[in-house]
Write a structure and sequence with these properties.
Homodimer. With about 290 residues, this protein is α/β, with parallel strands linked by helices. Helices cover about 40% and strands about 15% of the residues. Bound molecules: NADPH dihydro-nicotinamide-adenine-dinucleotide phosphate.
């Protein structure tokens, strides 16, 4: 049917994993095992949940992992020293630093300390610049890339389409908008000061919601037949997860919508793994 299709992340993630398993196999045969380092200061619940998912995904694909768990009150110098050590470690190909960093750490300084070639989740502004330039040699933020991979997997035409992105954060909204722009979509970016959000959103053929406000995008945000990608992960009062889109309210209007959970979130760790393999190949001139 051309209405109300729930487009899940799992088939997208499975397809990515399947091709990564082959690529890793070839590398291992040449004596190279891709390796991801995770740097975590403290132990926030959502970091731990994401970490578990990332480790499991990497293990299934054959990527080595190492978690560097640091005290939440780690000094800036020590944090940077660890990044330098990782930068110089030939066996580590990708680094994920959990953000936001604890408050004593200066993100404006630390983000430059991670070498761009190992910066698989776009912490270093060099990689952000590449996203804006449309230079595919870098590493876009995994979640933003996941939005794109889902749309491509489900064969959603982007060229010439009107896309509205709700949210302009540096990790999701803004880079997702830039990736969509590179695919020749006509992109509008909304944020907390946007006037008449429902009007701007409902003008779009494709709506990407990344605001962090439970069920904010209601039926009046959605054009008939639109495709909706719901990036939001919110915890409701009863402890369940929900997105930024009121799925029940819009389901009869949309042509396709990603669910929460089991949507964008399930693709993000496959992109992370994909970036580790890409980094590994680049570092080994493959
Ligand atoms: P941020 O809080 O960093 O950014 C939220 C953005 O939404 C800001 O640009 C903000 O505008 C905008 N915004 C907030 N409230 C409103 C409003 N009422 N109307 C319009 N715009 C609004 O969040 P993130 O970008 O980090 O994350 C967004 C969502 O995606 C969250 O729910 C997060 O949990 C989820 N997420 C999901 C991931 C996944 O793997 N699926 C990974 C990462 C995040 P302004 O700039 O003006 O403040």
């Amino acid at each position: 049917s051309n209405r109300g299709n729930i487009i899940k992340g799992k088939p997208v993630a499975d397809k990515i994993s399947e091709s990564l398993i082959k690529e890793v196999d070839e590398l291992v045969n040449e004596g190279i095992t891709p390796k991801l380092a995770i740097v975590r200061a403290g132990s926030r619940g959502d970091d731990l949940a994401y970490e578990r998912g990332a480790l499991k995904r990497c293990q299934n694909i054959g990527i080595d992992t190492e978690v560097f768990e640091l005290p939440e009150d780690i000094a800036q110098e020590e944090y940077i020293d660890l990044l330098k050590k990782i930068n110089n470690d030939k066996n580590i190909h990708g680094v994920l630093c959990f953000r936001p960093l604890p408050k004593q750490l200066d993100e404006k300084v630390i983000k430059y300390a991670i070498c761009p070639e190992k910066d698989i989740d776009c912490f270093n502004p060099i990689n952000f610049a590449k996203v804006v330039e449309g230079d595919k040699s870098g590493f876009p933020p995994c979640t933003a890339q996941a939005v794109l991979e889902i749309l491509k997997f489900y064969e959603v035409e982007l060229k010439g389409k009107k896309v509205t992105v709700l949210g302009r954060s540096n990790v999701v909204g803004k880079p997702a908008a830039m990736l969509l722009l590179a695919e020749h979509a006509t992109v509008t970016i909304c944020h907390s000061r946007t006037i008449d959000l429902p009007k701007v959103a409902s003008d779009a053929d494709i709506l990407v919601a990344a605001v962090g406000k439970a069920k904010m995008a209601t039926a009046d945000f959605v054009k008939e037949g639109a495709v909706v990608v719901d990036v939001g992960i919110n915890i409701t009062e009863d402890g369940n997860l929900c997105g930024d889109v009121d799925t029940d309210g819009v389901i009869d209007k949309v042509s396709m919508i990603t669910p929460v959970p089991a949507g964008v979130g399930s693709v993000t760790t496959s992109i992370l793994a994909k970036h580790v393999v890409k980094a590994c190949k680049l570092q080994n001139n493959r």
